[in-house]
């Protein structure tokens, strides 16, 4: 995998959906590929645009229209059972609830009320969500600081659709229990809304 620092011009950094599309320019000639990168906006200003940290399976190119790769390096994580790591993770913690207004769906001959995803607001619920995700990923949460962030609004002009994501920033310490399982999750990311900059798990020792 590769870890890169990327700059995105102001014209494409105001809308989360357009920012994601700009990053695709660093992987030319692959219009039909599934997304093979995770990213997190580290800083954002109207005057200078966005500074982005991106993790990808492929090495990004130098530049594209409105986007420039400032630096990229290969990373090869070698996790060990019992290893303690500091982490940083921006996520969109949600839960599914049944909503009769959305109608019903039939699965395996049974009718079910459709579900919708709603953000978790209370810190206790957010920490429980993270603890569950890490356990599924072969790790255990040791300590965490939770930072509530402003909603992230997006527009999809082609689909004439808009919406918002409610990000939460987690910073803390975790313990690796299952290195193989943890390796997969680090590569694939955690939680929903990855196309809007969620799910990249940054790690450091010490």
How would you describe what is shown here?
18% of the residues lie in helices and 46% in strands. 26% of the residues are buried. The protein has 206 residues and is α+β, with helices and mostly antiparallel strands. The chain has helices at residues 10-13, 16-24, 123-136, 179-188, and strands spanning 2-8, 37-45, 49-56, 63-64, 67-74, 84-91, 94-98, 104-107, 110-113, 115-119, 139-148, 152-156, 161-165, 168-176, 201-205. The mean pLDDT is 88. It contains four helices and 15 strands.
Could you provide a short overview of the structure?
The chain is α+β, with helices and mostly antiparallel strands.
Radius of gyration: 18 Å
Strand content: over 45%
- Count of β-strands: 15
Determine the fraction of residues in helical runs and give it as a percent range: 10-25%
Overall pLDDT confidence: 88
Can you tell me the residue ranges where pLDDT is under 50 for at least 5 consecutive residues?
A: none
Q: Helix segment count? A: 4
Strand order in the largest sheet: 2-3-1-5-4
The biggest sheet amounts to: 5 strands, antiparallel
Give the overall form. globular
Structural class: alpha+beta
Distance between the terminal alpha carbons, to the nearest Å? 22 Å
């Amino acid at each position: 995998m590769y870890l890169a620092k990327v700059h995105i011009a102001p014209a494409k950094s105001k809308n989360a959906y357009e920012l994601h599309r700009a990053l695709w320019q660093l992987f030319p000639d692959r219009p039909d590929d599934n997304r093979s990168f995770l990213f997190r906006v580290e800083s954002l200003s109207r005057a200078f645009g966005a500074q982005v940290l991106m993790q990808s399976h492929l090495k990004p190119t130098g530049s594209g229209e409105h986007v420039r790769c400032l630096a990229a390096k290969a990373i090869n994580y070698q996790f060990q059972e019992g290893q303690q790591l500091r982490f940083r993770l921006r996520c969109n913690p949600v839960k599914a609830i049944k909503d009769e207004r959305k109608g019903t769906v039939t699965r395996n001959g049974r009718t079910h009320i459709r579900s919708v995803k709603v953000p978790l607001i209370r810190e206790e619920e957010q920490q429980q969500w993270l603890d569950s995700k890490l356990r599924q990923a072969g790790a255990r949460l040791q300590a965490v600081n939770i930072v509530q962030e402003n909603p992230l609004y997006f527009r999809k002009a082609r689909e004439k659709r808009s919406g918002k994501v409610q990000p939460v920033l987690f910073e803390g310490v975790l313990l690796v229990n299952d290195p193989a399982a943890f390796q997969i999750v680090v590569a694939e990311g955690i939680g929903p809304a990855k196309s809007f900059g969620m799910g990249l798990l940054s790690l450091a020792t010490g």
